[in-house]
Request: fold
Amino acid sequence: MTDFRKSCVYQIYPKSFYDSNGDGLGDLAGVTAKLLYLKELGVDYIWMTPFFVSPQKDNGYDVEDYYQIDPRYGTMEDFETLAAKAKECGIKLMLDMVFNHTSSRHEWFQRALKGEEKYKNFYIFRKGKAPGVPPTNWESKFGGNAWEYVPEFDEYYLHLFDVSQPDLNWDNEEVRLEVQKIVRFWMEKGVRGFRFDVVNLISKGEFADDETGDGRRFYTDGPNVHKYLRELNEATFGQDEGIITVGEMSSTSMENCFRYAGQDSHELSMVFSFHHLKVDFMGNEKWVLVPFDFQKLKNILFDWQQGMAEHNAWNAVFWCNHDQPRVVSRFGQEGKYWKESAKMLATVIHCLRGTPYIYQGEELGMTNAHFTDISQYRDVESLNYYRILQEKGLQAKDAFRIIQIHSRDNGRTPMQWDESVNGGFTTGTPWIGVNDNYRTINAEAEMADEDSVFYYYKKLIALRKEYDVIADGDILPISPKDPSAFAYERRLGNQRLLVINNFYERECEFCLEENLDSFEKLLSNYKGPDGRSMGRIHLRPYESMVLYKKE
Ligand code: GLC
Reply:
């Protein structure tokens, strides 16, 4: 068994983690300063979102130089110190590699714009269909058409994200060799993991109009993506068994993920897929307000769990990241049952088959931002859509309400360390507002309370290491149609684990063909006796329990 099955990855968004020098931005030295906190939690890896030189139009996902640290985050020496200190704490580093696109400020793109053919061929330039008409009708994921006109060439370049993020041309072997060089550079610095940003978009297929959609079917899981990933694997991280990799897969299919993350496919160790986080969208449309669909959430998670298991492929399991609202605000509640619901959601994810990821502050039960004015938002996507929604005819206040719920900035407010000013994140002016609830929700308070969300996460991380059934067991849904419960069994040889959760505030009851009293309770978010009675169970608001038996 490879070790990543028992591991837990903690995601750090350095800009919002901890500011060591008072400039209002988190930095690498800030991560080093908090390593003991992460060690206490018990995580094995930290995934750091990009800290390379970047104009920060998309908070570092627009890379200008893959070999240098952005001075806002520190120096190469700071990175080396972090890597060395993390190692002392038994924590490995996973870096975030953005290779679908670069920043338009990257030297390659700058030289392309000067007309150097070699570098024009690093990107995707095409003639328009007619004067003033872009090559295809594809939409950028951040709004608007995905092609930008360059008058000097009378051509357009493709940007699936912001106009400042031109897509790289992976069909050009020189690009692929450059990518390999970068990965090797960071491997030599001691990095033990890589997350590859939107990596299933790297191979573009036909450049044609999409009559029925936004174009994604032409470039998602494209024709050569598996070939390119295998090639990258063989030339770089595949040569070092201990390195783990995760691909961020945008709108992917399970069939493709069997290959991306298949045990013998030599592509990646695991994948992030996002279908379970679209259950509060309308189809693919995120910028609407609809309640989340609980049945759909369960169907998707169970399908992926079982499908990937049947094909010996491995999932990353998660609720939160820097692109998602906070899960306790989204599927739990912030009121009376804030703590219970945060713990319940943690249980659902951490006992699944796959490697669990925790996003900074999730282990404290941090909530959505609750900003009250558009000027408080920083995210390029949110600001674009605030405008686009109004252009489509929505009143400003209705557009704002949608941004409040779905904005990526919900997950980007600073980490809440203690009850001092700015939640202890910075002594300066934070780059984005700190959530007012830092006075009650913060790391210091939770570390002083053994019943806290923090310690609950710590227990879940430890359970995975102790019980092989969590890492390696099969997964079997229990009463998958139950309107309140999210329950499943994990099974490995004679070991059985029942994971039973009430996803709602309303109490619920259900029956199993099982004597539940014969199981040992490993973990629960309620103290004292519970509502088990032979084959029945009564669950209190957001009640969650993990039961175990060796037969
Ligand atoms: C990924 C990142 C996101 C970024 C986008 C473009 O989805 O997680 O933050 O904006 O890719 O790089």
